[in-house]
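testing teh design pipeline on a random one, pls ignore if ur not involved
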């Protein structure tokens, strides 16, 4: 039993595993109180894009904190939010005309689902059925869990989760089954399909083709079913492009962004929507306004951090760094993939993934051994079961990336 009162997320305190105390971060490195330098190979759970404690983002946060820290956002506005909304409009697909703020990936998904149902109700054709992809993950709040995969993570809450229609994952060679199931489900009149474009993160870094994503979007459009792209993990260069949807040449009706929105420095999310979705809620009738808010909606400090992130995207060669990291990742993965205990080596943009020692599921007893092995080598990797993935900040050095893959190679021997 530790002396700290903190109850950590996704942590079984009964196992007594060490919980390192981190005092500082810089670039792709974390520094612990006991003097270790740890390589952050998962971008602190997929959020840190340009590196920890980025000077431009840190300065923007400090400046804004001394000017305007917080203001109610219902009926009020402020400059950082206006600048951010305009900045997003400038770089996101032009069809996505409206920007709704919230605080996390999960809430951006809740907002997306509520927008979809509001859209149908206010058009006078109530629909509420949501279509989802097998193995999907959209967050840990009740609505977000409802549209995600069911399993040990949410077994206790299953009675509270609403029903959805699950389409089979479009694994290579089995795409048609997904498309047929989607076509069938759409004909029955669904409110929306929600997907993680191109890569299912928490589901095990499962990659599917851009052609399939494009076809799913076309089927939805043909049947007037709203298409929600949850790019909470995929956006901001992770998959090689600003948005994963770009690679399929598609634009969703509703787009969820969070994690890398502030460069990973501070919580913030947006749900972007097309004009028809906004228009369905618009008018003189107060009962059709969008009933969603949280205390910190569009917090000015968080918006300032996001504006600094957008400035970095505008003024620095971020996509070049992304392409460079993708190439370095490909080289490292190729060198490792020959090891006999590695299977399913795959890559999308800056993300690589593989299974070590066969397929075993999230609670496989290999997972804690892998974790301990990486921890001993001062590498922050957090396998999903026995799926090990590498998703570093774009600024990771060659030496650090080499050390990450060295740790994985050594982990294969345990
Ligand atoms: C992480 C994630 C979420 C949830 O975001 P939080 O900020 O953790 O609530 C939702 N969707 C996807 C695809 C994610 O990867």
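output:
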């Amino acid at each position: 039993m530790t002396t700290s009162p903190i109850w950590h997320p996704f942590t079984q305190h009964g196992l007594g595993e060490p919980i390192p105390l981190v005092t500082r971060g810089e670039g792709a490195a974390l520094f612990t109180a006991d003097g270790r330098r740890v390589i952050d190979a998962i971008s602190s759970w997929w959020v840190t894009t340009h590196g920890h404690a980025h000077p431009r983002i840190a300065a923007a946060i400090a400046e804004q904190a001394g000017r305007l820290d917080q203001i109610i956002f219902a009926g009020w506005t402020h400059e950082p939010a206006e600048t951010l909304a305009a900045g997003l409009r400038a770089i996101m697909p032009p069809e996505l005309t409206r920007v709704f703020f919230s605080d996390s990936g999960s809430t951006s998904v809740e907002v997306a689902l509520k927008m979809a149902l509001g859209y149908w109700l206010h058009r006078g054709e109530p629909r509420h059925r949501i279509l989802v992809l097998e193995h999907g993950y959209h967050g840990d709040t009740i609505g977000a869990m409802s549209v995600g995969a069911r399993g040990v993570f949410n077994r206790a809450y299953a009675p509270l989760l609403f029903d959805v229609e699950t389409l089979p994952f479009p694994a290579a060679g089995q795409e048609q089954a997904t498309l047929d199931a989607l076509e069938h489900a759409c004909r029955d009149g669904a409110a929306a399909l929600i997907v993680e474009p191109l890569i299912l993160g928490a589901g095990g870094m499962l990659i599917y083709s851009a052609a399939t994503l494009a076809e799913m979007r076309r089927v939805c459009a043909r049947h007037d079913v709203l298409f929600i792209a949850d790019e909470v993990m995929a956006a901001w260069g992770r998959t090689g492009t600003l948005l994963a949807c770009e690679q399929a040449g598609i634009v969703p009706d509703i787009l969820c962004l969070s994690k890398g929105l502030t460069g990973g420095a501070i919580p913030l999310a947006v749900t972007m929507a097309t004009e028809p979705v906004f228009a369905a809620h618009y008018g003189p009738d107060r009962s059709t306004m969008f009933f969603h808010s949280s205390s910190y909606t569009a917090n000015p400090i968080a918006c300032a951090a996001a504006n600094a992130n957008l400035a970095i995207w505008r003024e620095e060669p971020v996509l070049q760094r992304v392409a460079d990291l993708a190439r370095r990742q490909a080289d490292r993965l190729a060198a490792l993939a020959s090891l006999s205990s590695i299977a399913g080596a795959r890559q999308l943009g800056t993300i690589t993934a593989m299974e070590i020692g066969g397929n075993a599921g999230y609670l496989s007893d290999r997972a804690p051994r892998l974790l301990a092995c990486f921890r001993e080598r001062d590498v922050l990797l957090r396998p999903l079961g026995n799926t090990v993935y590498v998703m570093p900040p774009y600024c990771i050095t060659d030496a650090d990336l080499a050390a990450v893959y060295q740790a994985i190679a050594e982990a294969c021997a345990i």
